[in-house]
From TrEMBL:
It catalyses: ATP + protein L-histidine = ADP + protein N-phospho-L-histidine. Keywords: Kinase, Phosphoprotein, Transferase, Two-component regulatory system. Pfam families: CheW, H-kinase_dim, HATPase_c, Hpt. This is histidine kinase. GO terms for molecular function: protein histidine kinase activity. Residues 420-556 form the CheW-like domain. The modification Phosphohistidine is found at H44.
Length: 807
């Protein structure tokens, strides 16, 4: 019986969550028969189940709501606001009773009679909907009154001809703890696989055993992905309560708003859904209270009487982007500045120098509100600072744009999942720790020309491009010995959940990995500097650092980022030019100072000379087990050449330089376009004219170092004999690395060229070129034209030529 009751509670709460938004949509369109039938079926199902489970309060409330909805179905009552509000109140009470049973909490029944009275009294107020027409009443043969309504649609629905059945997906309920156990189990399996792989590499194994291991490894990876998906939930769940909230709040504020929800089919981790609910709720309430004007004010401003509130969710890489926009009055910058000066956050002189973005950023300061008075909706001192803290606590960021009189858009970017996050592995003495990549703004070496460090009043201050940050060493916070003489230390500019950036010094940053996150023991988390435990691919458990906890333990005397004093050159340039971009100022290896758009710079790093190699006139840098094209090499390299790793969204290249000088704002439009070679043009910087490097030219030069197909299009290569080990294991990878598409026989679709051994395949199409590869270097009277299988240049040239002739 307990299992049946638990199933009833779960189904009831789940259905209520779905119907909460649907009933508001039904109020807007009372002719929507499908929604009305869904509400009626819900109450009827609850009433029937309660009789079996001996839940008389449930039965009494559901019966009352069922009677009202039956009258609406017959056209005897209209779906006016009073009726909808009464039905919503009963739904709320049923939900509270269900949660009370699940949590063993007794809900008083003192208000049940008042709810039933509200249902039974016909609305005497203003009815916004006309009575339902006869055509919308019960169809012929349908049941009326409080008789038994049609049962909910079964999983298998009969088609019109009584034959085939369209089956809906079969589902079961699982405890969340079981899903977590599955995730932990598959993570352990991944670590065991990695450990086995290392041992196999160390001891050497036979080819057939290695093939079996690769198949097992692929299955483990697929299983991990499938289990990860069990934690995913649609954003629809995040949206469920919003229509009801908008309806109730607009009625309370005397406003009108049209809600638009988009992106409900986007999926995100269930924990992320729970973490985003409160910030989203607060932003929506702010939009309705502060943003959207009263109907009279909107009409006076030439706007529609009803405001527009739009919420859109979409996936962008490994992030979920949620945008909340309204067409209201926008944010009053003057009021924000006035409140900031009154609160002592800045002086009137400092406020006068703030940019528009910095003025908007004031809204994120604790206790700063533009509300004129304290109400049930706003003015209580709990504002956007809490929203930002909650979003940044889970590794997300929040941004805001607003146009006076036109509206405001708030954008939240949160990770797709909390269980697997991108992170940096940092070395601290003989120990390794992980830092969420979302908390890291920038990485620099301590000896960089952009960094200066000084001691002020017993504290260390790092100045990076004119910005001042408190500097702490990770070893000092954790009480670990520092290893000296191991090269320049790495400085990490950290953004904590408190919105206070600081610089954390570590011995080095070792790698960048996708990390599986697990809870740490209470004894470890009590230290305040660890957010959990992670299991990287090397199989050695390590602790995950908490950016905010480190700042609190170090007792950093930080100022808010938005109110830091801007450097004079940057401020002057920002005021003088509106359309600007950030550019990296660097010194070339020949001593020339040039610029490069910062948007294409992924990182600045020192490379060991041994990692730079040359082959056939082309240079490559070996980074993270990959070979990246290297530009600006000087033959035999020595020492630690500095490199800019550039990224175009798909490919990466290394551009060797002498040193990095600064990052500045420059005009988006070149002062003197040149477009010659790697130089795009000239830009005025102060009294000097600096050359701007053209990223297009750099990546074009790097592309020439790769084997590419004719006209830049991949060539479809068909390997006729899929069982030939040399063709499959030696030739196929070579073609794939060269950018070609490779498939294996039998022929599935028309290829550009067929590759085979000494004899052509019998089923080759006559119009498809066949390229035969022989075993011996010299052609010993071969009757067919063939190429030596290890003559790379001839093979690649023949493939391109064959594809060109076929085209």
């Amino acid at each position: 019986m307990d299992e049946i009751l638990a199933e009833f509670i779960a189904e009831t709460l789940e259905t209520l969550e779905t119907l909460s938004g649907e009933i508001v949509a039904w109020e807007a369109d009372p002719t929507d028969r499908s929604r009305l039938d869904a509400f009626f079926r819900f109450f009827h199902t609850v009433k029937g189940s309660c009789g079996f489970l001996n839940l008389p309060r449930f039965e009494r409330l559901a019966h009352g709501a069922e009677d009202v909805l039956a009258a609406v179905r017959r056209g005897e009552r209209v779906a006016d606001p009073a009726t909808v509000s009464a039905v919503l109140a009963v739904m709320d009470r049923i939900g509270a009773l269900a949660r009370g049973i699940g949590e063993d909490v007794q809900i008083p029944d003192s208000e049940d009679d008042a709810l039933l009275d509200a249902l039974s009294i016909s609305s005497g107020g203003f009815e916004i909907f006309e009575p339902l027409p006869e055509s919308a009443s019960e169809p012929d043969g349908a049941e009326c009154g409080t008789d038994i309504a049609p049962a909910p649609e079964p999983l298998a629905r009969r088609s019109s001809d009584g034959g085939n059945r369209d089956r809906a997906p079969r589902t079961i309920r699982l405890p969340l703890a079981l899903i977590d156990q599955l995730m932990n189990g598959i993570s352990d399996m991944v670590l065991a696989r990695n450990d086995l792989a290392r041992k196999m590499r160390d001891h050497g194994v036979e080819a057939d055993l290695e093939s079996s291991f690769e198949r097992l490894s692929a299955n483990v990876a697929d299983l991990r992905d499938m289990i990860s998906k069990t934690r995913m939930q649609r954003v629809d769940r995040l949206y469920a309560a919003i229509p009801r909230m908008v309806r109730d709040l607009t009625r309370e504020l005397g406003k009108k708003a049209v809600l638009s929800l988009d992106g409900g089919d986007v999926e995100m981790d269930r924990e992320m859904v729970e973490m985003v609910v409160d910030p989203l709720t607060h932003i929506v309430r702010n939009a309705l209270d502060h943003g959207i004007e009263a109907p009279a004010a909107r009409l006076a401003a030439g706007k529609p009487e009803a405001g527009a509130l739009r919420i859109v969710a979409r996936q962008s890489g490994n992030q979920i982007v949620i945008e909340i926009s309204d067409d209201g009055r926008g944010i009053n910058r003057a009021a924000l500045v006035e409140k900031a000066v009154a609160a002592g956050l800045c002086t009137a002189v400092e406020a006068a120098t703030l940019s528009d973005a910095e003025k908007l950023g004031l809204i994120f300061h604790p206790g700063l509100s533009t509300a004129a008075s304290v109400t049930s909706v706003s003015g209580r001192g709990v504002g956007m600072d809490v929203v930002r803290a909650n979003i940044e606590q889970i590794g997300g960021v929040i941004g805001i744009t607003s146009l006076p009189g036109q509206g405001t858009t708030i954008t939240m970017r949160v990770p797709l999942t909390l269980t697997i996050i991108p992170g940096l592995i940092v070395r601290c003495g003989e120990h390794f720790f992980a830092m969420p990549r979302g908390n890291v703004v920038e990485l620099l070496h301590q000896n960089s020309s952009m960094v200066s460090i000084e001691a002020v009043g017993g504290a260390r201050i790092a100045t990076i491009r004119g910005e001042h940050y408190s500097l702490v060493e990770l070893e000092d916070i954790l009480g670990l010995p520092r290893v000296e003489g191991s090269g320049p230390r790495t400085l990490m500019v950290i953004r904590s959940s408190l919105g206070q950036p600081y610089v954390l010094g570590v011995q080095s940053v070792e790698s960048n990995e996708e990390l599986v996150i697990r809870p740490a023991s209470p004894a470890i988390t009590a230290a305040g500097v660890f957010a959990g435990m992670t299991l990287p691919d090397n199989g050695q458990p390590m602790l995950l650092l908490d950016a905010a906890g480190l700042a609190q333990v170090a007792e950093l005397p930080l100022r808010e980022a938005e109110l830091r004093t801007r450097s004079a050159p940057a401020a002057a340039m920002a005021d003088a030019r509106e359309e600007t971009i950030q550019a990296l100022v660097f010194r070339e290896r020949d001593g020339t100072t040039r610029l490069l758009p910062l948007a294409v710079v992924d990182r600045v790093e020192d490379l060991e000379a041994s990692r730079i190699t040359a082959s056939n006139g082309r240079a490559f840098a070996r980074i993270e087990d990959r070979l990246l094209p290297a530009l600006n090499t000087q033959g035999e390299e020595s020492g630690l050449p500095k490199s800019l790793r550039l990224h175009d969204g798909r490919d990466q290249i290394c551009y060797l330089i002498e040193d990095v000088i600064d990052i500045i704002e420059v005009p988006a439009t070149l002062d003197v376009p040149i477009g010659a070679g790697r130089i795009a043009g000239l830009v005025m910087v102060g009294e000097s004219q600096l050359e701007m490097i053209d990223p297009f030219a750099l990546f074009a030069d790097a592309a020439r170092t790769r084997q590419v197909a004719a006209a830049g299009q991949p060539i479809r290569c068909l390997i006729a004999d899929a069982q030939d080990p040399w063709l499959r294991n030696i030739l196929a990878p070579l073609l794939i690395r060269a950018g070609h598409d490779v498939s294996f026989g039998p022929q599935a679709e028309s290829p550009d060229v067929i590759l085979c051994g000494d004899s052509p395949p019998d089923d080759a199409a006559g119009d498809v070129p066949v390229l035969m590869l022989r075993d011996v270097a010299e052609d010993a009277g071969d009757t067919h034209t063939s190429i030596y299988r290890y003559d790379r240049e001839k093979i690649m040239a023949a493939i391109v030529e064959a594809a060109r002739r076929a085209a």
